[in-house]
Amino acid sequence: MSDFSSAKPSRRSFLGSAAFGIGALAGMNISEFAQAAPGRTTDTVRLTWGLSGLNLIAKERGEFEKVLAKDGIKVEWLGPFPNHAPTLQAVTGGSADFSFGGSTTPALAAIIAGSPLVFTQFVVYEPRTTAIIAKDGSGIDKVEDLVGKSVAVNRSGLGEFLLVAALEKHKIDRSAVKFVYLNPPDAAPALASGKVDAWSMWSPGVDIARLEYKAHDIFLEGRDLEFQIDYTSYLTTRKFATDNPALVRAVNNAFHAEGKWISENSKDAEYIAQKAGKYSDQVRDQFMAMSRKYRYFAVDDEQFVAELQKAADWLVARKVLPEPVKVTDHLAQL
Fold this sequence. Notes:
By secondary structure, the protein is α/β, with parallel strands linked by helices. The protein is built from 15 helices and eleven strands.
């Protein structure tokens, strides 16, 4: 893509700085992660979860709740949710306090649409296996083969942006491919039944689909995309963050501890995730081999926020996001 150098963060340079970030995190006192701003108006936090990812493991393992209990905070888990967007709706609607740690793209879309949300922290995990897949024998073996075909994506989310990036990289006009907007629970059977020709999806859904539907990668984020344009994020309402900065910091710190445990105990973490996700041992073993690592970034990390702003601008330029958004206007003040 001709304008990648000016409109996107460099995966290589970003992950270099990310390595510094996790190193700094490992050596710091968690109370130093954010500026001290005392206060909370509740002793209960309502957290959303899904059938994969860090929040699932935090819920199932139980140590997360013990960490918060030391600060006199009780946890209520709400879910499961299929993807990030419904958790953002739950937070905006007042039935939950935090989104479940998902894509920044639907979060930015919700903010642009008027939701009073602010980011509380960000996460980068590697390796990333988000991919566009097609069933074996479909005749779709490369991005160019998607011309005239239908691809399931989640609107304004990771699936849609990956397809946009893949088409642009291979100089294919978006109008040549049919975007079918489906959430993951509907997209999986659509691919299986042939109602769509391909699916752009993240882990673990894409990994499960490869095995269950005998599918293969057309475009793999970690291999074929030279930059990262979407990150994992937690959000709450601006009012909740303003009223409860101490509680938000405590939740952030508990997630840091959980991410550190998962990064250091990936095998045990994958057994926990498999039990809840109910997928095969073969899929579980693939995840174990990845040994996924989590890196955290605070909302006052200027370099990270600058990278996210570049990502947002890239998405706006390609109409994945409908209008510009200034990321620094939507960060929790902790």
